[in-house]
Structures are given as C-alpha cells and as structure tokens.
Amino acid sequence: MVMGDLVREVDVAVVGGGPGGYSAAFRCAELGLETIVVDANKRLGGACLYEGCIPSKALLHVAAVVHEAESAKEFGVDFGDPHVSLDPLRKWKAERVVGKLSRGLASVAKGKGVEVVGGRAVFEDSRSLRVEGEEPQKIRFKHAVIATGSLPAPLPGLALESERVMDSTAALELADIPERLLVIGGGYIGLELGQVYAALGSQVTLVEMLDGLLPGMDRDLVQPLARRCEKLFHKIHLNTTVTGLRETGSAIETTFGSEKQPFDRVLVAVGRRSHSAGLGLETTRVKADAPGIIAVDERCRTDDPHIYAVGDVTGEPMLAHRAMRQGKVAAEVIAGRPAAFDNVVVPAVVFTDPEVAWCGLTEGEAQRAGRPVKVAKFQWAASGRAATLGRSDGLTKLVVDPDSGRVLGVGIVGPGAGELIAEGVLAVEAALTAEDLALTIHTHPTLSETFMEAAESLLREAGGR
Ligand code: FAD
Ligand code: NAD
Fold first, then answer.
1. pLDDT for 260-319, tens place per residue?
2. Rounded-to-integer distance, Cα 257 and Cα 200, Å
3. Which residue has the CA at smallest separation from atom 18 of ligand 2?
4. How far apart are the CA of 193 and the centre of ligand 2, in A?
5. Alpha carbon 201 to chain centroid, angstroms
6. Helices (H) then strands (E): counts for the chain
7. Which listed site, 71, 85, 142, 243, has its alpha carbon 20 to 30 Å from 452?
8. CATH class for the region spanning 348-461
9. Domain 165-269 shares a fold with domain 348-461
10. Which ligand is nearest to the CA of 183?
11. 8 and 122 in contact (C-beta within 8 Å)?
12. Topology given in CATH for the domain delimited by 7-152+273-334
C-alpha cells in the first residue's frame, strides 16, 4: 500500500501505547469515543511492560529469592549455593510475565474496541497525522493524545558504540552475567539493576556523580539501602564521574577519578529524557522546551486545543502510575468531563532490597523551603513483624504540619515499603492527621503498625497522650 491511500477519521488518536497511552485510549473508548492507538511497535505496554517496570521487577523478585535463600542459613535452613540458568530465566520473564501481561492488554483493547496501528506517528497539522512504517496511513482526529514516553539519556560526551555498554533496555535482556559490571548512576535504575546483577553473580562497581545514592531523598531513608548496597556491591564511588570509556576488545577500559579499570560490561543509568523529537510538533501549536518536554496544564492540555499530552513526554516524575492517571484525566477532559490532574502526591518506590518509598513532602524539602514541620520516626528495630522477618533495618517516617497535625509526607525504607506506602498516599490525599493514623486499628503483627507507632510517638511528644 502507498502511504496516504488510507485516511481514517477518528474521535481520538493516541500516539504511543505505553501506560499513559493505553490508559487514555481505554478510558476514551469507555466514554464512547472512537479511539485508535498508533504505536511504533504495534503493541500496548510501552517501556513499562517491555523494558521497564515489569521486567525489572521480575528480575528483582529473582534477586529477592536468592537473598531470602541465603539469609535462611541464619535460622538453620541451607538451600546451598544458587545456580542461575539464564535461558529459563529469560523465558520466564519474556513469556510468563511480560508475554502474559501483553496478551492481557491486547485482549482488553479488543474488548473495548480500541484498534492498535503499528508505525511511527508524525503530525501533519493540528487535526491529522501520518503513520510511517508498518501500516502507513493518514489519520484525521478530533483530538490527539501524545504519549510517546521517554528514552535513556546518553552519557554526556562519552558515546561509545559497543554491545558491552548497555542502557537499561539492553541490561534487562540479560545477554550474560558479566563478571565485572560497572553501573554509572546511583538512581532508580542503577540501584535496581545493580542489585539484580549482583544477585546473579556479577561483581558490581557503582559510580555516582553526586555525594549520595538516590540524591534528593532524605538520607535516613537511603541509609539502610546504602548499607545493603555496600555489602552487595564490590565498590561504590560517590562524587565521581566517568571521564573515559574505551573498548579494548575483551573489556571496556574506564577512567574515573585517578583510576583506570576494565569492566566486562557497563550499564549507563544517568536518567531519561522525554521522547518528542521527530513527532512533527512544529506543524501544530504544541510547545516543547529544549530537552523536549511537552508543556501541559492540569487537564493535560498542550498549547494546541486539539492535542493533549501525558506521561514521561510531559517530564518528571517519569513514573508509570503518573502516566496512567494523566491518561485517564486527558480522556475525561476530551469527553467533556470536569477532570483534572489534581492529585496531591505522586508516590515513588525504588524496588531494591530494602525498598525505599515516599510520597508528598520530604523532610529535606521542608528544610530547604524553610517550612516548619514535625517529623515522627519509627525504627523497625522495635517492630515485632520486622523481627519475625529478620529485617529490623527499616524506618517509617511521617512529615506532619505542626499546626493542623495533617500528614504532608511519608517515607518508608524496608522490605515491602512499596506496598506499605499506599496507606501514606491515602493519608496525604485524604488530608488525614497523625491522630487519624494513631487511632486507626492496624493488624498485629504487621509492618503497617509502624505508621500507627510513628503517629503515636508524635502525639506523645505533643503531650496529648
Ligand atoms: P512509554 O511507556 O515510554 O511508552 C511510549 C510508547 O510510545 C512506546 O511504546 C513507544 O514505542 C511509542 N512511541 C514513541 N514515539 C512514537 C511515535 N512517534 N509513534 C508511535 N509510537 C511512538 N515506573 C514506575 O512507575 N515503576 C517502576 O517500577 C518503573 N520501573 C522502571 C524500570 C526501568 C528499567 C525503566 C526504564 C523505567 C521504569 N519506570 C517505572 C518508568 C516507566 O516505565 C515510565 O514512566 C512509563 O513507561 C511511562 O509511560 P508512557 O506511557 O509515558 O511512555
Ligand atoms: P535517575 O534520575 O533516577 O538517576 C540517575 C542518577 O545518575 C542520579 O543519581 C544522577 O546523579 C546520576 N548521574 C547523572 N549523570 C551522571 C554521570 N555522568 N556520572 C555518574 N552519575 C551520574 O535516573 P535513572 O536511574 O536512569 O532512571 C530514569 C527514570 O526512570 C527515573 O528517574 C524514574 O523516573 C524511572 N524509573 C523508575 C523506577 C521505579 O519507579 N522503581 C525504576 C527505574 C526507573
């Protein structure tokens, strides 16, 4: 077929089939709008399903199993040394985890009548786009939603074309288990995938340009994770940048600080950048800033009245659950409903061992803004449940408004923090007070009691109890 033969007319064209795009498309269809998704890979799920959240969490589960088995020796159960077989591991990840979810999304789309077209979308004006590649065609739309996501940021000034230098996508493919792995970047990806490779048997060295892991997060929440990484990793270099990468045939020779060291593979994890280049935005009124971030208001409207944008392409925080919420908001607004992205917080979880999770105001942010807050901390060393799990290294922390007692922020470090944070998110969204948390019965023995304990300590301190 010659490009341009087919012109489709739809209510809504969604560009990109990741969590932002498919959430928008599903909601549009539910609201009676004829909706089409154009995705470069003709599938729903995006970076999250194929090269992000899901495969990384599958591998982190494997790392957790290895760790649990190791730590069982402490109470007299010895499973022996783990033997990792990459073929079954890759097959399990690809088929039982990613494949299963991928088929699920395809069947939801079918059920809702959302068609997925394969190819790259390029806008031709504010009401139409062309699809290049697999299924070339033109689409005229009443509204479009841009959900093209983000791409790994390259290492500035050190581009080296080598299969030994990996981004997160390549690292998740598990081509092998390198003997010596250098991880550049001590953020989400560097820590999560660094721990995966360490559990699988790599000797991991991590280099972080700033003075701590997970920069920006309260240090007391990062400390237990940093301690664990110090044990798991061969070496962590803070305040360090890599100044040279050279392929030597059998390794990558890297230079950082005054050291030159060979590594079998290097993982570059220094952030992600919004993916808006080549979309033909200049033919529309959509505005993107220099790094390509598309500006949107709280209704996910761009500067073009026909075009909305959601997810990573709209900037930080680049998280799947934010993209999904924005997608639903955009759909509702397009359908004429009074929706807005008016959430108070976007929670975040680093799925390492231990997990670090937070939402809302951090203690550090409050300090930097000169905002008075009360901080309540409950160390898991005093938690019965943590003791039964052999994991007393956690902390639950509440950041509370001193006048109203309202919970403004919650931070947790410890196993299961990613699930526990949901209570904190609800507390902040629903404007609950520390007293509300203290007076709510939490099941015993659970880690969720640490919320109640932290809140009680604050009330005791205030002399109220
Ligand atoms: P994406 O998921 O990036 O999807 C964009 C889609 O658009 C892609 O399918 C792409 O092919 C398509 N596309 C792009 N341009 C075009 C075009 N011109 N035409 C047609 N199609 C196009 N977030 C979390 O919340 N939790 C996690 O645990 C988590 N783990 C992560 C782990 C890793 C290793 C990585 C890399 C990311 C992780 N993230 C996580 C972030 C999460 O993946 C993203 O925030 C999320 O995928 C963003 O969704 P999106 O819909 O904006 O875009
Ligand atoms: P990040 O922003 O989390 O961390 C990047 C780290 O690299 C920072 O600590 C930064 O100081 C450091 N850095 C930057 N340049 C450097 C350099 N030249 N040398 C050494 N260190 C350098 O980015 P990421 O880890 O690449 O992850 C990208 C994004 O993907 C995250 O911000 C997040 O939005 C998303 N993500 C989320 C999850 C999750 O929700 N669990 C997991 C993975 C990724």
1. 999 999 999 999 999 999 999 999 999 999 899 999 999 999 999 999 999 999 999 999
2. 28
3. 241
4. 11
5. 25
6. 14, 22
7. 71
8. alpha beta
9. no
10. 2
11. no
12. FAD/NAD(P)-binding domain (3.50.50)
